[in-house]
Every structure is written in C-alpha cells, then in structure tokens.
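Progress report, Aim 2. The chain analyzed during this reporting quarter is listed below.
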Amino acid sequence: MPNLADLRENYTKGWLDVADVTANPIDQFQRWFDEAIHSQLPEPNAMHLATVGTDGRPSGRIVLLKALDHRGFVFYTNYLSRKGKQLTQNPSAALTFFWVELERQIRVEGTIDKVSIEESDAYFASRPRGSQLGAWSSDQSRPVPSREALEAQERDVAARFANQPVPRSPHWGGYRLDPDYLEFWQGRPSRLHDRVAYSLQPEGTWFLERLSP
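Predicted structure tokens for the chain:
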C-alpha cells in the first residue's frame, strides 16, 4: 500500500475571486455546472448528501441532482429510506459537489422539503420503465435476504404492472434543498486555495466574502 501522506496534487487549473462571481450563488453554481457539463465530466450532477437524524449521527451518500432553479436543488429517493427518515426527523442537509478534473468543489447547506406531488409525478413518468419498476421493487435501506430475492420482487412488480404505465409509488418522490449557505472552492498551488462563500441574510439578500483556505 502506498504511503498515504505522499499522495498529493498541486492544483494549478484555475482561480476564483469575489470580484469575478455573480451576486446570486445559484447563478454562480449554474455557471460552474455548465462548465462541468461542457468539460464532459462523468456525472457532473453527482453530489454527496449529508443528513443527520435525531440521534445526532451524520450519514452521507451520493445522489444525483435532477433539477435546479432559484428555489433550490432537487433530488429523488425513497421516502422510507434511511435518508428519508432522517430528513423527516431533521429537515436540514448539506450537499457537496467535487469536480476533481476542474479542481473545484461546491458546498451547499440549507433546509429540506418535499417537492410537489405534480413535480414528483412528472419526473417519475420521465424515468425508464426499469427504474420505475425498481422504485417499487426495493425497500430501500432495509435488509434483503439475497440478490435472488430482490430480483424476484422485481419480477412480481413487473407482472403486476404488465401492459400498463407504472404509477409513482407513494413512498418515492423528490426533495428540494432550499440553500442558505453556498461555498465555492477552487484549488490553487501550495494549498493556498480560493474559497468564496455566500450566506443568506434575514432580509433575503446574499452576503459574499472570501474565506481563508
């Protein structure tokens, strides 16, 4: 095994300053996100979602960003999963995007709420049929005795909805994170990275500042 202390990269691909970002962090996120897409990065919408339940123990996993506007960041999941239960217990969460090829990271913090039934229905209808069946087949986060048992559940669901559209399961849908803090990080040489943070103020405006790396 290599010496982990020797694994280093000297970041040199860009820079970031408060004078060069937009006044609204969602617009700045969209700017960087578009650049990530145009750079053909693998799954640029992959993001780490951190949640905390009533026990105070944090939990993290990768989910996919499926919609974005000035109301916030949208992803979809099973409401009865571990993260779904934690979001019911504590509707605060954090997102992290890391685009290593661009030496960029974005952190987002805020409050969570479910999207409307209409939004969840529309997105579910756009999914491939296999993914629709999977949403019904998986009791996400719960123990399953074997792969064979999981596939048997999928076959039962496929037979149940044979020759008809698959409706959205009532335990599956979307969440929207309404942000109150966003931080943009650009790797720089010698670990003197650029960090620019936006904090939502009580009157609804955004306060912008540079942070030490």
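Strands lie at 46-52, 58-64, 67-69, 72-78, 92-99, 104-114, 172-186, 194-200, 206-211. Residues 10-119+175-211 form a domain with the Pnp Oxidase; Chain A fold (CATH 2.30.110.10). These observations will guide the mutagenesis work planned for the next reporting period.
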